UniProtKB/TrEMBL annotation:
This is Uncharacterized protein. It comes from Pluteus cervinus.
Amino acid sequence: MFHLFRSSAVFVFLGLTSAAVIRAPLEKRDQCQSTLNTATKVAHSFVDHYFNSGTGGFNGGSLWTDANAMEDLGNLMLATGSSDFGYMQDISTIGKLALDPNTNWPNVVAGSNDDAGWIVLALWKIADYKGARGGNPQPYLNAAQQLYSYIAGQWDGICGGGG
């Protein structure tokens, strides 16, 4: 009985803590400039060696790894204030799919909901970047919503929804 009570108390505490964190205003934090400089140098090398502007993907990658790369590059640009990789967003495979309102996301992800989740994160990050730079984030937000709705529609009552 004590174990159950203790577990419940921890969840209540975590829930209250999470609620307090969510309500806190976002504040820009200081970045270590040398770390950002190194990350930018590595990112340029990575893009120069692997990004294929003809296909919109990264050579040797797949859609979910491309999504991770796009999200990371977006985070880096937001942290540094640069636009070094902004050109890639609209010409990337993910960007082209997002800009086409007729994209059939279920066909794109072909049942790979874990891959779809990575794509949603990349779409949100591209939207963050576009919005921060005065661009139009809406196509990316719309695509993320469509894809997220598809994922959510797959949830069931087994294993907490992951069947």
